[in-house]
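Proteins fold. Shown next:

***
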Amino acid sequence: MRFVHSADWHLGKSLAGFSLLEDQAAALEQVEAVCRDERVDALLVAGDIYDRSVPPTDAIRLFDDFLARMAKRAKVPVVVISGNHDGAERLGFAADFLAESGLHVRTRFADRTTPVRLERGGVTAFVHTLPFLEPEAVRLALGDDAVRDHDAAVRAALEGVRPPSRNSTERHVLMAHLFCTGGFESPESERPLAVGTAGHVQPSSLQGFDYVALGHLHRPQAVGGAAAIRYAGSLLKYSLSEASQSKSLTVVDLAGAAPVIREVPTLASRDVVELRAPVASLLTDAAFAAHERDFVAVRYTDDGFVLHAAERLRVRFPYLLQALPDRVAQFAESEPTIEHRPDTPRALLEAFWEQVGVAFDLEEPHRELFERLHREAGTQGEDA
């Protein structure tokens, strides 16, 4: 029994105003190719198919085209659950009818008790599905007032669903969209599920299955100290915080007692990269030519102020995400706490002067002038 685990496609998403639809279409072609080449028994997509609950028409069309190819050309069943970005009712439209064609869309809490059944070579795999659910929905569905956070909701939802015993001819897989404690976040990409730790689910709450296919976190990773509890990661890099990540599909074999897990790398049409160099080098150096079609964030290392840096860089890097002086970026990364922030006009000016790295020093007349202008601005604000 073999399947591909993927998640967090976010179809319809844009990056800094640039549409990613063509990039996502190319990535889905790779998903189809891996499923065919690996001769898998199913593709499991653990939520966040779309980037928002009401996706754009082009994103729906892309997903529809992909599913048609999987059914007609690749002939691979697809099991999908809804994530916190998806509109569960819209995604789950006509789910019962589509299941007859090998597309199993699971968006309802009640679906968890009816696993998707897959068979191959005398082995039966049961894919249990747990779409993203708010604790309130679980509390109401079960009439259990003790369900107050996501961990309690998952424990209650899986009560009676876990296989009571292991059978040599059966494999049990759980698909879920949640935040498992111990996972590494990509904070610029992932929408928090709850305030603080109320959205966290303990790895122990997910025990009892041969493999747990998770969605929500964009970095491919195993969690809870167990290789069999795993996030596949997002389809593409969806923010600068993911620039250093390698995206992949997870191929899982359930032939033996323990799953055999492999990562198959995927290549994006346009990468997300951060470049650090002086502006002149960025504009002329051949070493940066490979990134001219990538999504680029620049931290330029010039001394002093650079006029129209972003406009100049955008000529060579049309998909420029941002352009910041390196010293400003470093200052932002080590932003002082409230108690250490400048609390007088003079201290504010000196901190700013240090941050922008002006070549000449402040003199006392500069400080006095700034203090006077600061007072006058405050007086005018009160008069207004």
